[in-house]
Backbone:
C-alpha cells in the first residue's frame, strides 16, 4: 500500500489524511461488518461517514476496523475525531501488537 503523507499544520502537528489520496483508499486496511439493515460507509478526503437504514434501539448497527501501523517519526499519538447524532452511542478500542 502506498504511504499516506502527513500534512504539516504546525511544526508540532500534522494531519494524516489517507482518504485524501484516492490511490490509497482502495488499499486501506478498513474493514466493516454490518449488523443493521443498509449499514454502509463512505470516505471523503478527511473523514468516513457511517450510515444505516434501520437498527433496533440498543442493538449494534455495525463496526469498522482500521489497522494502523507504528507512529511516523516525531509523533506519538493518533487522534480520531467523532461526531455522533443524538441517541447514537459509539465505542472505540485500541490495541497494540507490540
Residues:
Amino acid at each position: 500500500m502506498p504511504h499516506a503523507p502527513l500534512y504539516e499544520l504546525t511544526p508540532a502537528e500534522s494531519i494524516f489524511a489517507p482518504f485524501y489520496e484516492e490511490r490509497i483508499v482502495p488499499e486501506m486496511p478498513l474493514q466493516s461488518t454490518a449488523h443493521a439493515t443498509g449499514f454502509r460507509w463512505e470516505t471523503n478526503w478527511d473523514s468516513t461517514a457511517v450510515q444505516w437504514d434501520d437498527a433496533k434501539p440498543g442493538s449494534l448497527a455495525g463496526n469498522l476496523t482500521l489497522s494502523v501501523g507504528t507512529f511516523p517519526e516525531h509523533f506519538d499519538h493518533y487522534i480520531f475525531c467523532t461526531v455522533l447524532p443524538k441517541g447514537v452511542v459509539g465505542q472505540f478500542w485500541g490495541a497494540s501488537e507490540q
About this structure: The chain is about 0% helix and 30% strand. The mean pLDDT is 77. Residues 31 and 65 are 5 Å apart (CA to CA). The radius of gyration is 15 Å.
